[in-house]
Every structure is written in structure tokens, then in C-alpha cells.
Amino acid sequence: MSRYRGPRFKKIRRLGALPGLTSKTSKSLQTENDLRNKSSSGKKSEYRIRLEEKQKLRFHYGLTERQLLKYVRIAGKAKGSTGQVLLQLLEMRLDNILFRLGMASTIPGARQLVNHRHILVNGRIVDIPSYRCKPRDIITTKEDQKSIALIQNSHNSAPHMKLPPHLTLQSSQYKGLVNYKGLVNKIIDSRRVGLEINELLVVEYYSRQT
To answer: If you write DSSP's letter for every residue of 104-156 in order, what string do you get?
Structure first.
């Protein structure tokens, strides 16, 4: 299954808030979603509950089905809780780090910045959105006015969220523009992910495929 490119509010109606997918919100959509959840309370099968948690994770981080399954398998082979490791793997992706830093308004927007070679990690251009960031990585913008202006505009349009403690954002002036630099301080604590999710249900959903 390919990456979702359809109407974003359609997914919000069904799954609830997906901040990585879209920075737009709608009170009417949220109210509609709450009413639907209340009306269907007790009617969902266990499979559907697990499926919806999996879909939340997939659409928030902008993954294909194959990519998410691959991450679940990697997490299953690592030490520690599979669900917590899974969340850490997804949160440390470069596109998500840019989003959490506020250098992009959505994860799809961050992916586009990376694909178009506007982003440097430790002084080198990285054009792979799934690049796994590590502690002490330094994330900067390519030093040209077009790239810096693009990131500045993205930052201005991004939702103003509290920066998680595993990241630091610094700014400086570059030819009249604001140039941003992100620092990865440590591996994220899985309790501080950018999405309300029950990761155990996702692991259970994939249990027969791992």
C-alpha cells in the first residue's frame, strides 16, 4: 500500500487529531469525531481498535504499510519494549525531527524539504527523509537564501508546540533572514512522542506478521 495522498480531514474525521499529517484543525470535525466515538462505544471489534491505532501511527508519520511493518520488525529484534522502541525509531526519523523542531509545519512538508536537498545533517546534505538521527546530530539549512527563506516560512506557518527536551532549536541571522539550527540532545523518551497512541495495540496488530 502506497503513502496516503488523499484528503487529510477525511482521516481526522475517522481517527482523530493527526498533527504530523496536517497542522489544520477544525472544531466541527473534532466534535463530529467525539460524537461518533461515543455513539460507537462498545461496538468496535478488537481487530478494528488495533487497526485504527495502526492507521493513526501510519498516517501521522506518513509511512507506507511496508515501511511501518519494517519498523515493527526492527523494533521486535531490539532490546526493550517493542512498542516503545517502535515509537523511538519513528520519532528519530529526520522528517519527524524537522517537524518537532518547528522547521516544517507537517511531516509531509518536512519530507519535501529533505527530498529537495535543503537540509544538512552534520554539514552534509541528507536527502533521505527516513534518515535516523542520533544524539549530537546537528541539523541545519543549506546556506543559500532560497533554502533559508523556505525554512523560515515553514517555521512561521508551523504550529507553536513546546519543544521536547531531546531537541534544541537555535537561530541566527543570515542576510536579513532567520537561519535555524536544530540539535539532537538524546534519544527521545517514548512518553514524549507527538501523538496520542497505544503502541501496544499496533504491535498486537502486526503480531502474526513479525
So the answer is: SSSHHHHHHHHHTT-EEETTEE---TT-B--TT-EEEE-SSHHHHHHHHHHHH
Q: What is the pLDDT of residue 162?
A: 85
pTM of the model: 0.84
Q: pLDDT tens digits for 173-194?
A: 988 999 999 999 999 987 888 7
Q: Residue 28 and residue 11: Cα distance in Å, rounded? A: 14
Residues paired with 179 in a beta bridge? 172
Q: Are 86 and 71 in contact (CB under 8 A)?
A: yes
All domains in the chain, ordered by first residue:
8-89+191-209 (1.10.1050.10), 93-184 (3.10.290.10)
Task: Report the amino acid identity of residue 1.
Answer: M
pLDDT tens for each residue of 13-33: 666 677 776 665 545 445 445
Q: What are the Cα distances from residue 19, in Å, to 27, 75, 155, 162, 193?
A: 14, 23, 15, 13, 11
DSSP secondary structure letter of residue 23: S
Among 99, 136, 135, smallest CA distance to 119 is for 99
Angle between helix 94-101 and 82-91 (nearest 10): 70
- Mention every residue, 6+ apart, whose C-beta is less than 8 A from residue 177: 145, 148, 149, 152
